[in-house]
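Researcher: We plan to redesign the surface later, but first we want a full-length starting point. Tokens attached.
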């Protein structure tokens, strides 16, 4: 278990082409790692064997009653946001009113993505993870053919009229688990219409965009714990 080649392969699985070398990994902090195992333990990364989940709750005022103008209902709105990372650089994000026990099952099958799930790719830069997402296509006519080989969920061709979601999250830690928290840093919506891009930024308040916390999911282990090659 202390074999350095095994730990190097584990690091390649997490950081891919941006793995770098053991010395001066982080340009900002000039972090030096003494072994590949040391890098895997101390370097910020995302967890694959589960899902990052946040819960948003807010009050919404309803309309006045026709019979009693002084009566106005207040609605309690609750929904969850799910983000799942995979070792091959792909990421899925979904917003749903479903409780986590049901919500995680909707992004379990990476080969049959639901239309309400955003999919894309991510990259790690120090303690920051960047995501580029777009809506799942409902028909092949709009996005071209989809790869059928295992692990591929990205379309081959991009839609000329597409909507992309550009997200930056900072990796945090909990007292019991490293890299268990994702904190919102930046969220931009880019709409492409007739080859013209229009962008708008979201207001990242804690009430609307609370931190996401990692939760292990047993059914994800088949993809997360695939053999090191």
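Model: Full-length starting sequence:
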């Amino acid at each position: 278990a202390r074999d350095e080649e095994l730990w190097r392969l584990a690091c390649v699985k997490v950081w891919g082409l941006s793995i770098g070398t053991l010395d001066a990994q982080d340009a900002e902090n000039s972090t030096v790692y003494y072994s590949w195992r040391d890098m895997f333990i101390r370097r910020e990364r995302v967890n694959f064997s589960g899902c990052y989940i946040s819960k948003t709750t807010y009050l919404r005022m309803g309309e006045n009653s026709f019979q009693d103008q002084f009566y106005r209902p207040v609605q309690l709105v609750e929904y969850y946001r799910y983000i799942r990372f995979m070792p091959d650089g792909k990421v899925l994000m979904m917003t749903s009113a479903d409780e986590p026990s049901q919500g995680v099952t909707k992004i379990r099958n990476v080969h049959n993505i639901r239309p309400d799930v955003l999919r894309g790719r991510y990259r790690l830069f120090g303690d920051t993870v960047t995501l580029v997402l777009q809506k799942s296509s409902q028909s092949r006519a709009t996005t071209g053919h989809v790869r059928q080989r295992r692990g591929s969920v990205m379309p081959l061709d991009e839609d000329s009229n597409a909507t992309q979601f550009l997200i930056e999250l900072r990796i945090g830690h909990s007292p019991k688990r490293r890299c268990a928290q994702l904190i919102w840093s930046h969220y931009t919506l880019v709409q492409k219409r007739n080859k013209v891009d229009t962008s708008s930024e979201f207001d990242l308040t804690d009430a609307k965009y609370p931190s996401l916390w990692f939760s292990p999911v047993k059914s994800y282990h088949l993809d997360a714990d695939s053999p090191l090659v």
